[in-house]
Each structure stands twice: as C-alpha cells, then as structure tokens.
Amino acid sequence: MHGFMWYFHADHHQPKYEHVFERNDIFFVIFAIPSIVLFYYGAEAGFNYLFFIGLGITIYGFCYFMIHDVLIHQRFKWFKNTKNKYLIGLRKAHKVHHKHLGKEHGECFGMLFVPFKYYKI
C-alpha cells in the first residue's frame, strides 16, 4: 500500500475523509475478487484446497476490517470506549504510523504487534 498502490492508499493518510468511502476501500474489492473466484472453483471441484484458500483470504479480510477500520480508525463506533490496554496501545501505534501524510518515513503500523512503549497511558 505504500509502494505502487499508494495512489489508492494516499487519501487514507489524510486527517479527515470527505466521504463515507475512500479510495483505500478499493483494497476490499481487490482481495474479494480472487476470493470469490477461488470459492467458486473450489466448490465446483468438491470443496478442494482452492475453496479453503478463498476462505482464508475472506477471514483475513474480515479480521483486517475489524482491526484496522473498526477498532483502530473507528469508522464504526463499536469499540469506542474500550479500556483494554492492548487495544489502546494498538490505536496509539497506528496513529504514529499516520503521523506522516506521505508514503515515506512511516513508523510502526500497529496492526497486531504493538511495541511496549505504546502501552503507557
């Protein structure tokens, strides 16, 4: 996302979103298409390994959505009042990543592994 796909990801690093959707949301489509194709061909072949690869892509996408869009960026306010130190640290670490509006010089992404320095409240 910080390489050749920056065009789609750049608006995600802006402080405010003008619309409900952002260009960055195209990544859901980019990953959904191969997942759907793998589901189809895997089911046609008797639920072989292709189906389960598609399932893995779908599960990863759901987890990414829940962690990145819901928990970290709070596009949906489902976990707004959490007191969990890990989840608060996760949000802080990712906020540091967004401190840089460009694609260079980004710091810790804070997706699942959170350096201990972000646990301090």
Question: Could you explain how this protein is built, in words?
Answer:
With 121 residues, the protein is an all-alpha fold. The chain has one domain. The chain contains four helices and no strands. Helix 2 runs antiparallel to helix 3. The mean pLDDT is 81.
Secondary structure: elements and pairs:
Blueprint: H1 6-9, H2 26-44, H3 49-72, H4 85-97
Helix pairs in contact: 2-3
Instruction: Name the average pLDDT.
Output: 81
| Rg, alpha carbons | 17 Å
Distance between the termini: 30 Å
Which class best fits the helix and strand makeup?
mainly alpha
- Which sheet architecture does the biggest sheet show? none
**In one word, what is the shape?**
globular
Q: Give the domain tally.
A: 1
Helix segment tally:
4
Number of strands: 0
Taken as a percent bin, the fraction of beta residues is under 5%
The proportion of residues forming helix, as a percent range, comes to: 40-55%
Spans with pLDDT under 50 lasting ≥5 residues?
none
Order of helices and strands: HHHH
Task: Give a brief description.
The protein has 121 residues and is an all-alpha fold. Helices cover 50% and strands 0% of the residues.
Supply the key terms:
50% helix; 121 residues
